[in-house]
Amino acid sequence: MDEPFAALDAMTRDQMSVDLAEMASRLGMTVLFVTHSISEAVFLSDRVFVMSARPGRITAEIDIALPKPRGLHVRESAKFVEHVGDVTKVFERLGVLKDRQHTNS
Question: From the record, what ranges are coiled-coil (predicted)?
Answer without folding.
Answer: none
